[in-house]
Amino acid sequence: MSPSATNSTVNCNSSVNAQLASLRGQSFMSTAQLTPGELTGLLAKAQEFKATYSDPATKATAPKPLTNEICSMIFQKRSTRTRISSEVGMHLLGGKALFLSSDDIQLGVNETLKDTALVLSRFNSIILARVYGHKDIEELSSLATVPVINALSDKFHPLQMLADYLTVKEHFGKLEGLTFAWVGDGNNVLHDYMLAAPKVGANIQIATPVGYEPDQDVVEETMRLAKIAGTKVVMTTDPIEAVKGANVVATDTWISMGQEEESKKRLRDFAGYQVTNKMLENAADDHIFLHCLPRHHDEVDDEVFYGDRSVVFDEAENRMWTVMAVYASLLGKF
């Protein structure tokens, strides 16, 4: 790398680090708390980490800013991508991650959640938790004396949003002016998608069956943000209307963990929502397809899922680079 390129990289890093300085010592519960600058800064930092740590020429000598930092990862719900990306990401930055399943720790069961939060804070630099109820992660954050990361709750999934938006930015080179479409359940991932779209200057078009709409408080906040940003929000029950002209088409599982008993009813209610090439004929010519996984055939057919427009495995990889950006930002170490 030439000296001028090195100086340019340093200046870029300094600028991004300044954008993220306000996150130091904070917890990360949802996209709602991020300013537009913090959101774009996290994506830029993730891109920096990806360029450095995925390149064999620089990976071996890459800095380890989180050396001696420890993260306890509490998983009430099983996971593949969240666990692996969070654990490997901490390792790449020089830190260590400790996995705690529901067999190891049960929030508020064997001891009060307050006691657990205070004890974990003595041993760790940061806590990451994947929980059922959002109130659990909020309470953990309010009681812990170290930053807490929401790795999924029934209300929000901000780490997934970051990975998805990074994937879109990589593909199109921008986020501003794009149109996102969501087809399926009005769930936790969608909530963060909605809150992020106006913050990056993007439009969002959402199709959900009746009774599966996103939470009203998230809808209202998204509408407020979109009015300020001058972006568009469309809410419909028609998947064709939602994908019309969209650059990005995303869906998710229709049956999340804990909803298995509702599976037959949900499959009936979501009839007509499977993403197919026929549906995507209504999207923009340059559209891409996202799914945060795990995927079931009812949600998207094989032709789309494994097709040229699908970026789901880039999306899965980006879970690691984005959580690394969150770790570094909350700990203030780059």
From TrEMBL:
Any single Pfam family the record assigns to this protein: OTCace_N
Cellular component GO terms held in the UniProt record: cytoplasm
Keywords of the record: Amino-acid biosynthesis, Arginine biosynthesis, Transferase
Catalytic class of the enzyme: transferase
GO molecular function terms attached to this record: amino acid binding; ornithine carbamoyltransferase activity
Keyword hit for Amino-acid biosynthesis: yes
Keyword Translocase in annotation: no
Record domain Aspartate/ornithine carbamoyltransferase carbamoyl-P binding: where: 27-170
Domain Aspartate/ornithine carbamoyltransferase Asp/Orn-binding as annotated: residue spans: 176-329
PROSITE patterns noted in UniProt: CARBAMOYLTRANSFERASE
EC number(s) on file: 2.1.3.3
Gene Ontology BP terms: citrulline biosynthetic process; L-arginine biosynthetic process via ornithine
Family statement drawn from the similarity comment of this UniProt entry: Belongs to the aspartate/ornithine carbamoyltransferase superfamily. OTCase family.
Name the record gives this protein: ornithine carbamoyltransferase
Source organism of the structure: Phytophthora boehmeriae
